[in-house]
TrEMBL record:
Annotated protein name in UniProt: Putative low-complexity protein
Keyword Signal: yes
Keyword field contains Signal: yes
Extent of the signal sequence: 1-24
Pfam entry (one): Pentapeptide_4
Keywords: Signal
Amino acid sequence: MIVRRLATFLLALIVWCCPLPALAQATKYYPPPLSYSNAELKGKDFSGQTLRSAEFSNANLERTNFTDADLRGTIFSASVMTHANLHGADLSNAMIDQVSFTNADLSDAVLTESIMLRSTFDNVDITGADFSDAILDGAQIKELCTKATGVNSQTGVSTRDSLGCR
């Protein structure tokens, strides 16, 4: 009985002590995400930048350039991205809900496993975009399939296949 209690105590002590150095090590390599929420970023150039897990909620990103940017895990909820350039950007695992992509360039973008519910895609260029496992409304998929062409240069997946077009 005493051995069992001692083992339980030692295990609890190890679990309690070990996460602290691991957490300190993690923050050394992964700083807190950047926040641009509610920001006026019209026409800004973020091309080629690493913005993993950044937050752009409710931001004005009209005519913003994200060409070839690393935007994995980024949040764009309820932002305006009309005329934005996202050519070749990696938006894997991003939260892109309620975003206006009117006249945006999403060509060759990687949007795998992104959540894109209630976003609008009027006059958008999706040539070569990869939407594999992205969460979209049925109406969005139907609309995007009417303009889906090309193969993504990074993943090798065709836009039509990634959307499940028939």
